């Protein structure tokens, strides 16, 4: 029903001479498979649902338990309000959901807890569905993606997972080690690239904009499908570092018209309401095209997606519930709500 990436990719152009290629060049797949539609095998889908459920259990535990044998009264609404706030859904989304739920219970004359829970599920799906957007590849050669986020949000890990998923779908990928701040981060990406036969553009010079520009040039010359730019972690309050990020974005546009085609923010699901502040700040600075929310496993703050949907509805392309490659998957509102309240 849902493929990892949407759209048929364009065939790659003939590879030209490499510009900077410290790691071996990934050979472009001679015959790119049609990516649409890809039926996920039932067992694979099931295992993702099981992982999603397990990952979100800390958030869902506080919510699901409310409906067990509950009476529909003010106590239930009070407890639901507290649970949503504790899940970091935020005041706006919590008020919205409670008001809508009370209205629905009245209009539809709902009498038992199971029906109220089903109504809440429906309202949550409606609230989160606008965040759901398939990640499209193949409109540009290469599709240039810039990955931003605060320190430790999971940027580099996400890049690795996405690159592997893309490779599996027959896409050629080139990475830029734009995190020139932490030498270890650059090396980590280089080693990872070598192991996975993915070229990583890197420079010792320490200028992220220059590395990013080189990467786009190289990606164009080689006819790569995707160029992903890693960036150093930074807080939105570090204004000079935010300016540096804007410069990287501008320079990418000089390297290729319309680039970056995707500007993603990776956020750590554990940060709850602070994640919302990050979305606002990075969106104001960079005009984000999408989010990746990692580490939803082991957090009780998964409600932050509701806050994002109400306050700054930037699409959520992928969510992560663990460290394995298959733990990063496209965000599907109905799956997410099923895992929370199923
Ligand atoms: N449990 C869990 N851990 C994750 C997930 N995604 C990433 N991590 C871990 O989070 C840690 C930080 O990830 P990195 O990818 O290094 O984060 P980063 O944003 O690149 O970090 P900086 O370069 O320091 O800014 C690593 O230990 C990852 O394995 C996830 O979905 N779940």
Automatic annotation (TrEMBL):
Please state where this protein is localized: Cell membrane; Cytoplasm
Q: What's the protein's topology in the membrane?
A: Peripheral membrane protein
Which Pfam family, any one, appears in the UniProt record? SRP54_N
Q: Which CDD domains match?
A: FtsY (cd17874)
Cite the SRP54-type proteins GTP-binding domain residue spans from the record: 315-328
Q: Does the keyword GTP-binding apply?
A: yes
What Gene3D superfamilies is this protein classified in?
P-loop containing nucleotide triphosphate hydrolases, Signal recognition particle SRP54, nucleotide-binding domain
Annotated signal peptide: none
The record lists the catalysed reaction(s) as: GTP + H2O = GDP + phosphate + H(+)
One GO term in the molecular function aspect is: GTP binding
Q: What class of enzyme is it?
A: hydrolase
Q: What is its EC number?
A: 3.6.5.4
What GO terms fall under cellular component here?
A: cytoplasm; plasma membrane
Primary localization? membrane
Record keywords, A-Z: Cell membrane, Cytoplasm, GTP-binding, Hydrolase, Membrane, Nucleotide-binding, Receptor
Q: Where does GTP bind?
A: 149-156, 230-234, 294-297
Q: What does this protein do?
A: Involved in targeting and insertion of nascent membrane proteins into the cytoplasmic membrane. Acts as a receptor for the complex formed by the signal recognition particle (SRP) and the ribosome-nascent chain (RNC). Interaction with SRP-RNC leads to the transfer of the RNC complex to the Sec translocase for insertion into the membrane, the hydrolysis of GTP by both Ffh and FtsY, and the dissociation of the SRP-FtsY complex into the individual components.
The name under which this protein is listed is Signal recognition particle receptor FtsY
């Amino acid at each position: 029903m849902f493929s990892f990436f949407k759209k048929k990719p364009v065939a790659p152009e003939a590879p030209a001479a490499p510009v900077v290629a410290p790691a071996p060049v990934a050979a472009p797949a001679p015959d790119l498979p049609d990516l649409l539609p890809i039926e996920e095998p039932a067992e694979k889908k099931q295992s993702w649902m099981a992982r999603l459920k397990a990952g979100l259990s800390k958030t869902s535990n506080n919510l699901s338990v409310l409906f067990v044998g509950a009476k529909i009264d003010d106590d239930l609404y009070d407890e639901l309000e507290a649970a949503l706030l504790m899940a970091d859904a935020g005041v706006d989304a919590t008020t919205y959901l409670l008001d809508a739920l009370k209205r629905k219970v009245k209009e539809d004359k709902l009498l038992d807890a199971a029906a109220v829970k089903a109504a809440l599920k429906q309202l949550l799906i409606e609230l989160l569905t606008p965040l759901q957007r398939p990640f499209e590849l193949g409109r540009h050669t290469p599709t240039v993606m810039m990955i931003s986020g605060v320190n430790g949000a999971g940027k580099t890990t996400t890049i690795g997972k996405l690159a592997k998923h893309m490779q599996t779908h027959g896409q050629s990928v080139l990475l830029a080690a734009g995190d020139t701040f932490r030498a270890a981060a650059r090396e980590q990406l280089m080693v990872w690239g070598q192991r996975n036969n993915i070229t990583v553009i890197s420079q010792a010079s320490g200028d992220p904009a220059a590395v990013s520009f080189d990467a786009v040039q190289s990606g164009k010359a080689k006819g790569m499908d995707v160029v992903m730019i890693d960036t150093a972690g930074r807080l939105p309050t570090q204004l000079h570092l935010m300016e540096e990020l804007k410069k990287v974005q501008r320079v990418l546009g000089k390297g290729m018209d319309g680039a970056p085609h995707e500007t993603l923010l990776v956020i750590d699901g554990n940060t709850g309401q602070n994640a919302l502040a990050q979305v606002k700040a990075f969106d104001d600075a960079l005009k984000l095209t999408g989010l990746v929310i990692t580490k939803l496993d082991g957090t009780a703050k998964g409600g932050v997606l509701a806050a994002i949907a109400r306050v700054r509805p930037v699409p959520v392309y992928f969510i992560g519930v663990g460290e394995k490659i298959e733990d990063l998957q496209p965000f599907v509102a109905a799956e997410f709500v099923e895992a929370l309240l199923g």
